Amino acid sequence: MNGLLPGFVDPVADAQSAFRAVLEAMARPGRVQHLPHPPAPPSPLSPAAGAVLLALADAGTPLWLDAGAEAAGWAVFHAGCPLVENPGAAAFALATGAPPALASLDPGTDEEPQRAATLILQVASLAEGRGWHLSGPGIEHEHRLEVQGAPDGFLEAWAANRARFPLGVDVILCAGECVAALPRGVAIREG
Amino acid sequence: MSAEASNERRRADDERRRADDERRRADDERRRWIGILARAGAAGIEARMADVPPLPPHVRLRGPETGLVMVRGRAGGDGAPFNLGEMTVTRCAVRLENGTVGHAYLAGRDRRGAELAAAMDAALQDPARRPALLAAVVEPLAAEQAKARAVTARKAAATRVRFLAMETTR
Predict the structure, then answer these.
(1) B68 falls within a domain
(2) Looking at CA atoms only, how far is residue B62 from chain A in angstroms?
(3) Do B62 and A77 touch (CB under 8 A)?
(4) Model ipTM?
(5) Chain segment A108-145, per-residue pLDDT in tens
(6) What percentage of chain A exceeds 70 in pLDDT?
(7) Rounded Cα gap, residues A136 and B48, in angstroms
(8) Does some domain include residue B2?
């Protein structure tokens, strides 16, 4: 437990503002949201990934993460979420390096598709206005999103994930203090 | 298996058992002071802090924050568990510069007391500070609490009614 770091400075208000940012990001796929008051989580977690984790995870959401013991201890202390070894059993999977295959995460069930896992994917940078072409629910014509550091073969895996709708995994992209979301209904075309 | 190897194993087992005992004793000791500090309150701790060197600086990891916890009970101690009711609890976790983490959970809404108790818990984990803090703060608080408990117990004992008929039918 050495080196345990604080979480949100103001746990209630900061978690609410982070939740609001994630909500906006999910409602407007491809729009990059800035988090106003992210925490300073242990490396290699970015402030945005830490904020999303603390705002969303709790005792009822098993977490899988690849960020090492210090980050795991931090998440467990502040969010109180159980850790799992197998990404398929997780409600939230947080990847700072190569993520588990989208197909290996919990896609939910036909009765309860909302129980699907959410992948919190830490990338190098996010930018609007160039890069991928996004279309689908929540997008009037087309949004463009540039993602630096997306894992190899992500778009093919994403197409397979989208084909399973209403099942499938949602992805929250985090870079620095910014988040963007890819809900499972979004179609991505390479730009 | 040779006698030497079995001796070797016995020694390793003894070693491990000793380490376990040691750890259990340390845990029990810490459990005791956390309990005493949790019952003491801010005023009780502050009143005894004058004679000891100031506590090391700390950062707040969590809280102090107040919430509710469900208290569960069992009828007769072995029945099915049921929810007795909620109680107000204030908790705090702090970290010293060297990474030691101190925790406090106490009944009520004494936020200052929770932070002080957590800082005390962190400081008490340092063997160099422990004897002075135990002697100046924890032991006097323990004595005071034991005395208060004895007074309550005496008052309760004075009103005790012995139901002989029920005791014999049990």
Answers:
(1) yes
(2) 7
(3) yes
(4) 0.70
(5) 999 999 999 999 999 999 999 889 999 999 899 999 99
(6) 98
(7) 66
(8) no
